[in-house]
Design goal:
The complex is a heterodimer. Chain A has helices at residues 2-8, 14-24, 26-43, 45-48, 56-61, 82-117, 119-134, 137-156, 158-172, 176-189, 193-200, 205-241, 253-261, 269-296, 298-302. Chain A is mostly helical. Chain A is globular and about 75 Å long. By secondary structure, chain B is an alpha+beta fold. Helices cover 23% and strands 20% of the residues of chain B. In chain B, strands 2, 8, 9, 10, 11, 12, 13, 16, 17, 18 and 19 form an eleven-stranded mixed β-sheet that branches. In chain B, helix 14 packs antiparallel against helix 15. The chains are: A mainly alpha, B alpha+beta. At the A-B interface, helix 5 and helix 8 of A face helix 7, helix 9, helix 11 and strand 17 of B.
Chain lengths: 303, 565
Amino acid sequence: MTDATSAATPPESFRGAVWAQFRKHKGAVFGLIVLGLLVIFSVIGPLVWNPEKLTVVEALKSKNLGPSLTHPMGTDQLGRDQMQRMMAAGKVSLAVGFVAMIIAIFLGTLIGVLAGYFKRLDGPLMRLTDMFLALPLIPLLLVMVMLFRDDLSRAMGPEMGAFVLIVFAIGVTSWMHAARIVRGEVLALKEREYVLASRSIGATPRRVILRHILPNVISPVMVAATLGVAEAIITESVLSFLGLGFPPDFPTWGRLLFEGLEYMQLYPERVIFPGLAISLTVLSVNYIGDGLRDALDPRIRGR
Amino acid sequence: MKLTTALMGAVAALAFAPAAFAERGADGNVNVLYWQAPSILNPYLSSGTKDVEASSLILDGLAGFDEKGVVFPRLADSIPTVENGGISADLTQITWKLKPGLLWSDGTPVTSADAKFTYEYCTHPEGGCAQAARYEGIASIETPDDLTIVITFTAPKPNPYTAFVGGTSPILQAAQFANCLGAAASTCTEQNFKPIGTGPFVVTDFKVNDVVTLAANPNYRDPAKPAFATMTLKGGGDAAAAARAVLETGEFDYAWNTQINPEQQAQMSAAGKGVLLNGFGTLVERIEMNQTNPSPDLPEGERSTTKHPHPFLTDIRVRKALSMAIDRQILVDIGYGAAGRPTCNLVPAPELFASPNTECLVQDMEGAKALLEEAGWVDADGDGIREKDGMPLKILYQTSTNPVRQDFQAVIKDWWTELGVDVELKNIDASVFFGGDAGSPDTFQKFYADVEMYANNFDGTDPEPYLAQYKCDKIPGPENQWQGENINRFCDPAYDALVDELSKTSDMAKRGEIAIRLNEMLTKDTYIVVPLVDRGRLSAASNTLGGVVLNTWTPSCGTRRTGSA
């Protein structure tokens, strides 16, 4: 009897199990679809949707149009097709959000694990975290932009230079919360029996961390990461607004939103579309994070 | 600082329309909205336009400027000139006569001693007077009798209408301010908040940074004015909200500096409760061409200095081609609507000093392309960018962060790209760009870019100090902490000589001629400065107001209500 039941459930691979659990989370699946659509819209969209480049005078004739078949999202105050700008902006905003988040999470996890696991490093690393938390973000970014913008834009061109600078600037100034969360988790985990058991049989710290600790801090890291994406997109908008971000002819969702603000009363679609794109991205990433956390947690997955 | 103030916009004011048939106080209350609220009512302690204009309701000078920039008498009997003997032949002395029988709002007589006191008040070494420039170059002020004021200058002064002329240098009552000299100036709260004046209104209540309530001055020199018995001057909000309060909701009768975009202008005017008025001053949005090399390859301290001339912007054909590719009317339509007009001049007004130059108004893309070909810039490798001797025609174009400026950048980039120029855009936060910090690479004075765009104007009606900014010795550089005003690093001995001549000429017609010549040397002769838009000062006035005259030269106030008198 018992043999028959266990034979009915085929042995699952780790990935398969995670995916099966993930699929059960409706919100996460929905988030994944929306995010996928947004990525397709931004990356593949420009290949499909490519209205011809008009001269200034021609473009101005069709300024401030509402959504129509020729311009699905309308045109802006200079007669530029809003959909084309949304696609270009999406590429930049999504890339900034994800790359900055990866940098921040990598730094945060590294510092959090080191501080939590090695008692000697705890003090210095946590004081470093406090120091970064105390740094005022905008003046720091101002200095970074001032010092490195010219060199980077010379080395990599104005757009790529700005991208590297912004991603790096956001990344190195937003890892602190992740580091604190991870450290707390690690402090609790390293006293657990299975960690003690692993250490007592002589496992190296490297193995203990990778095998027993990291998989268990994935959930808080995932939550921090998803919030990080949202924060990075918004920080980039602030930077662009202050003129510290990308060159002005390089649209991002945040910049489109700020540009549309002035026209909000007359042409609400000018702020609705970029605002919707930012909100949908943030929301779907959050749901994906939620689903991933459940899927990666062996206790929940087992049920 | 000066520039930032200028950019913040706009001195718009109302001037009294002749309303001889009206009676003082017949039109009840008038509500005026200044979205930047006044914080003090003594113009000697604040350079803010809002404060100067609010004070001008209460305080008066000897003379003022009308809407054409011409001097007219206020407290003075007439305007002294060389012809009527009021100004000495050697231009070192000016004699003003007060109108007889003038009274302060408290009923005491106005005398020449008040003027002398005002001079001492503002020039007190410990006073920190915001308008000290109005009293510069004065050797002494004599008062031979109660009505006569004799000002002696240290050197010949071709434009002597500075002290006691215009809203920035009114006459204070000696009796009221006697204890407020020097360091005590800013502690005299009662005096600074409720000055006794000769203007059309007196303060009844003043809430700092919020609201000023005023009542008609019972001793005002014209018995028929002001037409309003009381006035409320309210502060707060922003330009769009202020315009809406007058044009859409009708809560206010007049709103100052309502700089809104053309779409909003059209939408709000459509409500039919009021109209947008515009007064043109001297604020010109322009592109400045760097005559020195801003390349980051040069060592710090040599970038954008006269040591290294610009590789291609020193060629007038390139500068002219860049100017010819721009359609200024389109820029006006995009950014300013009724509040702007295309211009080719650095000095667009007053009429006497404005050049009739309109050559740049027509866009000529083909002509511009031909000019670049002639200068040797051709697109040899077919990438759409012109080259000469292997150097691509690449321009870094910077300006401050401002929605209208970014729209201008986008459109001008399109035109220049069509011309075969590779344009890189950059925008910098306004507080950094205009901040003047010698340590920042992003200030407009450092000019670490090939071209940059901003707006500037000049105080008063005389462009001499403004044009003198382009002299060789005003070039910013590391040796003067980047504080020069000659942003383009333009240097022409002939120009300097002409500026010197201007400073020695007193005949107005001749001054006009020289100023026009200087303006043309910078614009249509050389294209060192490429003016784009003459920006006006937009205000909103309710339809119930009549006789509103916008005056950008000097603050002065009042008007009457139609249909009620």
